[in-house]
Amino acid sequence: MFSFANVTPVDLSIGIEPDAVSEPWPAQVEYFDHEAGADLLASNLAAAGVDGVEGEDFPDGQGLAWEEVTAIPHTGTHLDAPWHYGPEVDGEPAKTVDEVPLEWCCGDAVVLDFTWKEVGGEITLEEIDEQLAALDHELSAGELVFIETGADDLWGTPEYLSAFPGMGAAATKHLVEQGIKVVGTDAYGFDKPFAEMGRRWADGEDESELWPAHFAGREVEYCQIEKMANLNALPRRTNVPVVTFPVVVEGASAGWVRPVAFVEDEDGSTADADHANDATGGA
């Protein structure tokens, strides 16, 4: 059984940041400090029938800080449920994020290196197999597969939205048909960048050029994690214990997730993990 003793957690996520330039639909966050929190709590008490309490009546005139967040569940690192791709998977109702089995979202991960792949390129079935062969690894049902593109280095810039390769339909189905239920990427999207898909469609008006990896999920059942980070901080490429549980949003197509890998701490040092967390502000 896996033990949390003598392991270092490595954060593989990007957080929800207000007005992030790397998000097409950035989150909005309204912050309430402790003084404002005291006034709000006093208002809550008044609404509950307790009159006379003012913000200044709280210790030091301070209440509880809080925030109001307006964001789509595809902001920051998130897990897309089968419902995101279509209403059915192979003729059966597609699962929403609250219906995704937790067993799908934890296990050993395999990290495939596509940092060499050209921007806008499509990752093929053959390239998936070549990377697995380079690792001398055969996939097992229940493993998670993460696609490392290096695009997370561009987080915080507009280029993050377009400078990455994406998965193809055949490559996606190939993984799922081997028992993989969760595939992640450190890029903005799982498919190729929007403009590249649009260009390819315009060349021949071929509908298969539009979100092919996503729409593969109408044939095979899987989840994808987008906007991961720090895959380069992992000391190995296979047999990496991870948890990727999504936040439950009832009936939704996605949920925010904070993937965490657990790396054996052989020398007692946590420097690598600390560096990884610093890379995204400990998001």
UniProtKB/TrEMBL annotation:
One Pfam family linked to the record: Cyclase
SUPFAM superfamilies of this UniProt entry? Putative cyclase
Keywords on this record?
Answer: Hydrolase
MF annotations from Gene Ontology: hydrolase activity
Give the enzyme's main class according to its UniProt record, as a single word: hydrolase
| InterPro entries to which the protein is assigned, alphabetical | KFase/CYL (IPR007325), KFase_sf (IPR037175)
EC code(s) of this entry? 3.5.-.-
Annotated protein name in UniProt: Cyclase family protein
Q: Which organism is it from?
A: Halomarina rubra
